[in-house]
Amino acid sequence: MSIGFDHLAPDILAVRFSAIGDILLTTPLLRAVRTRHPGARIAVLTKERYVPLLIDNPNVNEVFGMDPDEALRQVADLIRSVEYSHLLDLHGNLRTLALRRLAPGPWSSFSKARVARAALIFAKRNLYRRTMPMAERYFEAAAGLDVEPDGSPPEFFLSAKAVERVTGRLTHLGIGDGPTLVAIAPGAAHATKRWPPLYWLELAKRLRVTGAEIVVLGGPDDMPLAEWIASSAAPGAVSLAGMLELQETGAVIKRSAALISGDTGVMHMATGVGTPVVALFGPTVREFGFFPYRSERSTVVERTLGCRPCSSQGGARCPLGHHRCMRQIAPEAVYSALCSVLA
After folding, report:
1. pLDDT band with cut points at 50, 70 and 90 for residue 9
2. Model-level pTM?
């Protein structure tokens, strides 16, 4: 990682280390800063593997990737070497707190509403004065820059090379030229956010009956499930799980008529490229701020249960052992939601 650019006023560094969705939800703020301050120098610091999410964003001058083995003190030394007028902590965790102490400066951050979140999870008391999407909460950190949300969704800019690679891959696989290509993403980092595998398979078969083609997306850990779904629903269904880079995943989603996923980063990829989303929410709720942001043709499928929410990010197992929040979302309900967003 290296930092070096000409000094312009204002000089802004935004820090958000992870993850996919959280980083893409910073883009409405980055866009607003660019609109309000056209001559600003805007840099973003994130983890190296997430650099592709922002590298082609025209509202950002530079994206700095932190290597996995890079010490926080080294990063702090580089930040101190530049006289930033605004340092935006868009992560708000212990790591960025340590970074702020190692590199003192004009830092500002935002409220994570931890008390309200904990009250809703553990006491089922809603102390949120209003439901504010995370993309808009980030604006609290930029109060000194005189910016406001513009009402538009996140942005995920793709390189021409990524689009070209995906076009060639889909053509080689013999899909993508039919009347409808639907992307599905059955995986999730936390088990309680995952829809049952048999439900995904039932949905995939229902889609194939209509003539829709299916591409299953995910990371390396999702490959066995994705390949099982695709092979069971074939022909006309393929798995690309574990085979694509971040921008290539975005290019597949952009080419698709819609994406069906859980509460995961690919959901925000879809809103960032303008593809409608059918999102399945279980352990988490709207108040936490991560529903599809400003996507008019997207919808959330969820069930009203007294045990929701049970966590802020999902967990390894359902605290009550029944996982009804996801099991009670029927495949036919998801299919109906898809038909609605495509109507």
Report:
1. low
2. 0.95
Query: Does 4 reside within a domain?
Result: no
Instruction: Provide the b/e sequence for 155-194 (b: ≥16 CB within 10 Å).
Output: bbbbeeebbebbeebbeeeebbeeeebbbbbbbbebebbb
Query: Does residue 193 sit within a domain?
Result: yes
The answer to whether residue 1 sits within a structural domain is no
Cα 334 from Cα 234, distance rounded (Å): 20
Same domain, 249 and 307: yes
| Residue 253 domain flag | yes
How far apart, in Å, do the first and last CA atoms of the chain sit? Answer: 46
Residue by residue, DSSP assigns 309-331 as ---SS--SS-TTS--HHHHTS-H
Residues 90 and 204 both lie in one domain: no
How many domains are contained in the chain?
A: 2
* CA diameter of the chain: 60
Retrieve residue 316's tokens: 């390894």
Note the pLDDT of residue 187: 97
